[in-house]
Design a protein that fits this description.
By secondary structure, the protein is an alpha/beta fold. It contains 21 helices and 31 strands. The structure holds adenosine-5'-triphosphate. The site of adenosine-5'-triphosphate (ATP) has 17 residues, from helix 4 and strand 16.
Length: 908
């Protein structure tokens, strides 16, 4: 395939720009397994001439054809060319430019494993372009290096001139830094085992090398994943590396902010630094290269020079000539599937490929703009790499590219791609370097007071030296003048005495007179001159003396100041010592604290273990206690359950009794012809049968009220009046003698006469002798008293007294019941002894929801009379104090002698 020439060459011819020089370097093919060189038959590249090569494709499977393409370059370096020869061809001209104050950039571009790093760095015994460049630069300018630290980078592509004091301080600072970091030692240790091959070439530039002072500065950065990292930054050893920012100076030239720029004085020093940076550079093992660079590295060497006839004190930035060479080892483009990269390597590879793609695009667009006279925007800013070298595309300096090629067959497509790019780049023109624009107004450097003082002293000394020189010059001038004066006096012409005897003596005498006269005049003139000069010399001497005096006094002042400064320095040194001592003390204290911390930590650990064991014990105790509690609770629960069951049984029994009673009452209430028998309520109080003397009455509160029961105990004592007291009643009939247990302060109410009542069988029945009514509990209640015909009027104990009542002898009608709130039915019967038993059955009248009326029976009071064999005192006791109070207030029961009749009262 024959490629076409583009018209960019025309531009070169007309002087529109300088072409990018592209060199192709072929790597010797190697056996992949044992790194042995193989014969050239496996190579897909054939070198056609010193500028042209032919690329062959592998055999096409379909048609068996082999494709062929040709590529032109500035020069082709075959695989057998040595590193030294390659250096001379590729880098030496750029170093020559450097010394002449011109800038340049040299890229190595190629597929991974094609020999870029080998070309740039090379092994120690066969160094590449960068170590050789250092060698050559120091071989050339080494003898003319300026005073170290006289220049200091302003970190914006320029340099500041430092005073003596600043130099001293800088030196001290650097020495201290070196001592602290131990860099010296580390640099010496690097690669010290293998001897390095030196390049002895030196460049000769007769115009400059003897009349200039030179300074060499180096920076080394890598662009990794589109971030810039400083490889000289010692901080990256201790902490995570910080990326650096790209800025532009006031001339629009990019620079890396805060990058470390190191002044180097020897090639060894530079190479030690280089090795240190290389160790920090990111490399990784891939399928195609055991030490594949994962970043673009940029080593920049700056040469600063100025004419030595400019005195250092009047040296300014404008007097400096700064030139730079950038040696760029680009990371290799790689196909992920071929390099078999995974994980982080894939990300790196894509970043590398992306930045190389931007570089390609920049060159392509530049070429297009030049070929078609368009002005498409060049995408410099899309990657850090192109942003950094933007000014070079705009004409800052020369651009060279070394296209490294590994001519193995299986990489055919990638090689073709790279070769195409190289050829394309070769056609790009960059504008010629323009003279730098006038510098901006100088910014006075900020100096310390001490530095300013020292600079003043410098200036003064300089002035003194100038004055002395001037004096010497004047003296020399005077001497010359005197000398010339003496020279002017011509010697006497030889006196020929013989002439006096001759004829022409007069003439001779006249001549002699004339000669003498002239000599006298001349002497006179010279005397005048000498006097003048003497006068001048005298004045000058006076001036000198006065100058000397002033110099002496200045000197004294300076000496004093010097002494002062020396004192200050001593004082500072003492302070430094003290500070160092205190620092040591602090270190000791810190160590002590650290030790104590350790002890405390151990103690804390022990305590923690103790706490843990205590906690586990407590947990165990708690579990034991909980188990015991559970057992106990179960026991208590069982006990209460049994209790409750017993109570329930009791309750059921009581309920049953209550139901029996209610049934009886209901049947009584239902019947209009109430007979005495029907109202007989079985009294099943055992005590009333077994011990008739003591009747125990249980008073039940209404069971309907929440089914709760309260028991009030009332004792009634029945006694015979003939046995017990002096009562006048002599008959044998029993007498009711009710005694209530009074409260101590309750007034005693005397008994009244008993009332005799005849019952149906002819017995005299003794009713209660006195009507004692229990007061109705509520004045608002209206009672319906149903007292059937034939009922004996008892008017006796505990008979309720109703304030509002309606009496009826017949079964009441509904209308009558509706008007009342309470209902009481009086029922009488005779017991076995023929005594009247009176029951008061009481109930609440309640309106029903259907408009009817219900009577709920809830209380039965029974009055009975018994005849006990012995008279008993009747007592009534109230167990509940509250109840007692009520009873005491409502009733006044007194014991009395009377018939042996004892009313018995029940309440349900
Ligand atoms: N001209 C050469 N002569 C001898 N050996 C070479 C040459 N060029 C490269 N090599 C060898 O090839 C191998 C790969 O070279 P190198 O590391 O320089 O490749 P690279 O292009 O920098 O790769 P990457 O882009 O992955 O960093 C190295 O072992 C190197 O020694």
């Amino acid at each position: 395939m024959k490629k076409t020439q583009l018209g960019s060459r025309d531009l070169l011819i007309t002087g529109g720009g300088c072409p990018v020089e592209v060199f192709c370097r072929l790597r010797p093919p190697k056996d992949n397994h044992n790194d042995q060189q193989t014969d050239n038959s496996s190579s897909c590249i054939k070198v056609a001439s010193s500028k042209e090569l032919v690329l062959y494709s592998s055999e096409n499977a379909k048609n068996g054809q082999i494709r062929e393409s040709r590529y032109d370059f500035s020069h082709i370096l075959t695989d057998n060319i040595s590193q030294s020869a390659a250096f001379k061809e590729l880098a030496l001209p750029l170093l020559d430019d450097l010394i002449q104050g011109k800038n340049s950039v040299l890229f190595t571009y190629g597929i991974t494993g094609s020999g870029k790093t080998y070309t740039m760095m090379g092994p120690l015994n066969n160094p590449g372009l960068i170590p050789r460049s250092f060698d050559v630069i120091f071989n050339s300018v080494g003898p003319y290096l300026g005073k170290k630290y006289l220049l200091r980078s302003d970190r914006q592509n320029s340099y500041e001139i430092q005073s003596e004091a600043d130099i001293l301080l800088e030196r001290q600072r650097r020495e201290l830094q070196m001592a602290r970091s131990g860099n010296n030692q580390r640099f010496k240790n690097l690669e010290s085992s293998t001897p390095r091959t030196l390049d002895t070439t030196s460049l000769w530039n007769p115009q400059l090398n003897e009349n200039c002072s030179y300074f060499v500065f180096v920076t080394f950065v890598e662009i990794y994943n589109n971030y810039i990292y400083d490889l000289f930054d010692d901080d990256i050893l201790n902490k995570a590396p910080q990326s650096k920012q790209l800025r532009e100076d006031n001339r629009g030239r990019p620079y890396i902010k805060d990058v470390k720029e190191v002044e180097v004085r020897t090639s060894e020093e530079a190479i030690d630094l280089l090795n240190m940076g290389l160790k920090r550079r990111r490399i990784a093992h891939t399928q195609l290269n055991t030490e594949s660079s994962r970043s673009h590295s940029v080593l920049s060497m700056r040469l600063v020079q100025f004419q030595t006839d400019i005195p250092p004190t009047s040296l300014t930035k404008d007097d400096l000539t700064v030139s730079t060479i950038h040696l760029v080892d680009l990371a290799g483009s790689e196909r992920v599937n071929r390099a078999k990269t995974v994980g982080e390597r894939v990300k790196e590879a894509s970043n590398i490929n992306a930045s190389l793609m931007v570089l390609r695009q920049c060159f392509e667009i530049l070429r297009e703009n030049q070929a078609q006279s368009t002005s498409k925007m060049v995408p410099y800013r899309e990657s850090k790499l192109t942003s950094f070298f933007k000014s070079y595309f705009d004409g800052e300096g020369r651009i060279r590219m070394i296209l490294c090629v590994n001519p193995t067959v299986d990489g055919y497509e990638e090689i073709q791609h790279a070769l195409k790019f190289g050829e394309l780049t070769k056609d790009v023109l960059v504008p010629r370097s323009l003279p730098p624009p006038p510098p901006p107004p100088p910014i006075l450097p900020k100096t310390t007071t001490r530095a300013a003082v020292l600079r003043d002293i410098d200036n003064q000394q300089q002035q003194n030296v100038q004055a002395v020189l001037f004096t010497e010059f004047k003296i020399l001038q005077i001497c010359l003048c005197l000398h010339s004066a003496q020279a002017l006096i011509s010697p006497f012409p030889p006196l020929e005495y013989s002439l006096l005897d001759g004829v022409g003596d007069d003439e001779a005498i006249l001549n002699l007179q004339e000669h003498l006269r002239r000599r006298i005049e001349e002497r006179h003139r010279l005397n005048m001159l000498v006097q003048e000069q003497q006068e001048f010399l005298r004045k000058f001497t006076f001036e000198l003396v006065s100058d000397y005096d002033s110099t002496i006094s200045n000197h004294d002042d300076l000496s004093k100041e010097n002494e002062q400064q020396t004192k200050t320095v001593r004082h500072l040194q003492t302070r430094i010592k003290l500070l160092e001592k205190s620092q040591n003390d602090l270190y000791k204290t810190a160590n002590q604290i650290e030790r104590e911390n350790k002890v405390l930590k151990t103690q804390i650990d022990e305590r923690n273990i103790e706490i843990k064991s205590l906690k586990s014990e407590r947990r165990k105790d708690k579990n034991d206690f909980e188990n015991k509690m559970k057992v106990k609770l179960n026991e208590i629960e069982q006990h209460y359950i049994n209790d409750i069951k017993n109570k329930e049984n009791q309750m059921r029994e009581l309920e049953r009794q209550h139901d029996d009673k209610l049934n009886i009452i209901r049947s009584m209430a239902a019947s209009n012809n109430i007979t005495n028998e029907q109202f007989l309520i079985p009294v099943n109080s055992a005590s009333s049968h077994t011990n008739p003397e003591i009747l125990t009455e249980h008073v039940y509160q209404n069971q309907n009220q929440n089914q709760q029961q309260q028991y009030h105990r009332v004792e009634m004592i029945i006694s015979h009046n003939n046995n017990n007291n002096n009562n006048n009643n002599n008959n044998n009939s029993p007498t009711l003698n009710l005694t209530s247990r009074r409260r101590p302060n309750t007034p005693h109410t005397p008994n009244t006469e008993p009332m005799n009542i005849e019952n149906g069988s002819g017995h005299a029945v003794v009713a209660h002798p006195r009507q004692q009514h229990r007061r109705s509990r509520s004045l608002s209640e209206i009672w319906l008293e149903h007292r059937p015909l034939g009922t004996v009027q008892t008017e006796t104990l505990l008979q309720p007294k109703f304030h509002k009542k309606v009496c009826t002898q017949q079964a009441p009608a509904k209308e009558e019941i509706v008007r009342t709130t309470k209902y009481v039915l009086t029922h009488q019967n005779l017991d076995a002894q023929g005594e009247i038993v009176t029951d008061f059955v009481k109930g609440d009248v309640l309106a029903s929801s259907t408009g009817g009326v219900n009577v709920i029976f809830n209380d039965v009071e029974r009055l009975t009379c018994t005849s006990p064999p012995n008279p008993l005192m009747l007592h009534k006791r109230c167990q509940s104090e509250e109840r007692n109070m009520q009873e005491t207030n409502t009733q006044s029961l007194s014991s009395r002698q009377g018939p042996a009749v004892a009313p018995k009262r029940f309440r349900m």
